[in-house]
Design goal:
Blueprint: E1 2-5, E2 11-14, H1 29-36, H2 40-49, H3 65-71, H4 75-85
Helix pairs in contact: 1-2, 2-4, 3-4
């Protein structure tokens, strides 16, 4: 946060906001979105009709769906991914 004084003595405060963008996730985007939104039902339905392999669990920045679920506190989704994709709970980000 920066501050400056105008010629009339008024203090002007400015704040720089840095926009963060989500990694591009083209494959299984609906599943990634369900994880972001803690939408268990959508994730479960998606997994009913789509095969997700272990290599599909990574986004383009190397983060796994498991780590995203855990970092957001979505334990139910984390367990769903482990059970339905065969992902190992000790997967590491790339």
């Amino acid at each position: 946060m920066g501050a400056a004084l105008c010629s009339n003595g008024t203090k002007v405060v400015s704040q720089t906001i840095i926009a963060t963008s989500k990694p591009k996730r083209t494959k299984h985007d609906k599943l990634w979105t369900a994880i972001d939104n803690n939408d268990y039902t959508t994730a479960e339905l998606y997994l009913d009709f789509n095969e997700v392999s272990e290599t599909d669990l990574y986004d383009q920045q190397g983060q796994t769906m498991l780590h995203l679920s855990a970092s957001l506190g979505h334990a139910d989704l984390l367990m769903l991914l482990v059970e339905r994709t065969g992902a190992k709970p000790d997967m590491v980000n790339q």
